[in-house]
Structures are given as structure tokens and as C-alpha cells.
Amino acid sequence: MSDHHIPSARIQRTRRGQQHYVSDVDETGLGAVDAVADDSAPSSMWGEAWKNLRRRPLFWISSLIILFAVLLSLFPGLFTSQDPRFCELGNSLVTPAPGHPFGFDKQGCDIYSRVIYGARASVTVGVFTTLVVVVIGSVLGSLAGFLGGWIDALISRFTDIFFAVPLLLAAIVIMQMFKEHRTVWMVVIVLAAFGWTQIARITRGAVMSAKNEEFVTAARATGASKWRILTSHILPNAMAPIIVYATVALGTFIVAEASLSFLGIGLPPSIVSWGGDISTAQVSLRVRPMVLFYPALALALTVLSFIMMGDAVREALDPKARKK
Questions:
Q1: 175 vs 181: CA distance, rounded Å
Q2: Which of 36, 53, 125, 213 has the highest local Cβ count within 10 Å?
Q3: Which residues on neighbouring strands pair with residue 20, listed in sequence order?
Q4: Measured between alpha carbons, how far is 248 from 261 in angstroms, rounded to an integer?
Q5: Are 140 and 196 in contact (CB under 8 A)?
Q6: At 210, phi and psi to the nearest 5?
Q7: Cα separation, 276 vs 268, whole angstroms
Q8: In angstroms, rounded to a whole number, what is the distance separating the alpha carbons of residues 310 and 302?
Q9: d(CA 292, CA 285)
């Protein structure tokens, strides 16, 4: 065969050394086919998700608001030097003044300092309740989905019992029973005790889907133990829906704490919280509505930021959502 009938190829490497541009001339010599071959290693799911998140303004906006809320809860003294518990009736409902940009509430307390310090209770309840819920729900959901059989049936029926009880209603009843022990950690325990059911169901479904994948079959063929298969292969691939739900649930638990404090059965008045300030501001709503506006705005922005973060993470981890 002559050289005229042998397909020729021209390979050109880019500066990064990752792509080869190949031009193959067909046997007739009338046309050329350009192809791109990529020899770079494929990105992992988390790598692709991070690349997708970095391009989303919604992710950065929600991240900045969440970071600011965390800074308020950890270091409130950086943003105000006023004592949120120091009140003078002579300043009752006084309008904003130098050093007091939000004015004073009906008790003569500085609204700005109370909004700053109120972030600590709300964010603490949301973060720690979410952590406890993720641990309980992930453990029970993983065992139910992976082991199956009577263990799955037992855990599922146990989950259904708690799922049938509304979270806020259960929290109201329990908090009424322990009026003398109303602390941040008591609220965390009560909300976590009835808030783990949804994430348990999500984890169970994700584990049942992941355990039928080929990489799990390969792990079993190599002689890996059930514990190793669950912790090293199944759970890492089932974490995406758990993370998405946890992000959104954090905002939900902040709202639940604020609702309990608003009803007067959550945190005591000695603990500054947005829900408590919203409750006390009701009496001043007609006279000076801004007393209610500032803590309500702080609560709404914080909850909205976690919801936006959850939406951004869901779209980044869901290939179908990325295509849309």
C-alpha cells in the first residue's frame, strides 16, 4: 500500500499539555476531521460541584450573609460596645441617635446591640440542631437502607411515629413541661428529637440507591467488610442529598427557635434572641414599627441566605439541574 492511502495525522499540544488537536485526512484526501482529545484526569463530583458553585452569584451572596451572621454570633463585641441588657425607661421608643443607629425599644434597650447579640442564640440553635439531626438521621437511615430486612422495617416504623408528630407542636408541648430549664441547649435537644425524621428518609433512599451500583459490587468481590463498604463507598456517594437538606434545614430550625421565643415558651427573656425581640415589639408596632422591623429583617436575611445556599448546592450537585 502506498503512502497516499495511509491516513495522515497532525497532533498539536496546547501549552498546558492536556489537549491534543488531531486532524485526520481521509483516504480520498478531500476532507479533514478535527477532533479534540483530552488526556486530563476527570474531575470528581465534588470538584465539578465546586466549579459550578464558583460561577453562581447566588452562592457568593448567601455565603457572605452566612459568614456575617456567624461573625455576629461569635464576636458580637466587634460590632457594638453597647450592653444589650442595659435598658433605661427614659429612652423608651426614642428615635435613632449617634451611637444608637436603630433607636430604642419600649423598655429603653438599644435595638442595634440587641440585633447584633441576638444572632448568637439563633445561629447556635440552628447549627447545633442541624449537626445532631444529621448524625441521628444519617446513622438510622444508613442502617435501614444498607441492612434492609427487619431492621429496615423496624427503623422505618420508628421513623414514621416521630414523623407523624409536627415539629413545632411537639416542641411547644415539651418546652411547656420544662419551663425552668429553657436554655439554648434545651431548645437544641427538643428540636433535634423531632427533626431528624426527614433526613433519615433521605439517607435511607440515597443508601439504597448507592448500594446497587457497580463499585459496591466490586468492593464486595474484593472481600471488603460490610462496615467498610458502607463507610468508604456508599456513604461518600450518598452525602449530596444530605448536605443539601442540612443546609435548608438549618434555616428551618432558626425559624423554629424564633417561633418558640415569639410564643414565649422558647428562650427566656434573659437570653437575647431575635424571636424574643419580635415578640416584645408587638406592643410598639403601631407607635413605632421599626422596633419590629430590625430583628425581623435580621431573621429573614439569615434564613433566606441558608435557603439560597441550599438551592445553589442542590443545583451544583444535581446533573439534571445543571443541564436546565
A1: 8
A2: 125
A3: 13, 37
A4: 21
A5: yes
A6: -75, -30
A7: 8
A8: 13
A9: 7
Residues in the chain: 324
Number of neighbouring beta carbons within 10 Å of residue 301: 14
The DSSP letter of residue 230 is: I
The conformation of residue 181, written as its DSSP 8-state character, comes to G
Q: Going residue by residue through the chain, which has 324 residues, state the pLDDT in tens, using 9 for 90 and above.
A: 444 444 444 444 444 444 444 444 444 444 444 444 444 444 566 677 778 888 888 889 999 999 999 999 999 989 988 889 888 888 888 888 888 899 899 888 999 999 999 999 989 999 999 999 999 999 999 999 988 889 999 999 999 999 998 998 999 999 888 877 788 999 999 999 999 999 999 999 988 888 888 888 787 888 778 788 888 888 888 888 888 889 889 999 999 999 998 888 888 888 899 998 998 888 888 888 889 999 999 999 999 999 998 888 888 876 555 555
Residue 140: alpha-carbon gap to chain centroid = 20
Q: What is the number of alpha carbons within 13 Å of residue 133 lying toward its C-beta?
A: 32
User: Taking each helix axis from N to C terminus, what angle separates 111-147 and 290-317, rounded to the nearest 10 degrees?
Assistant: 30
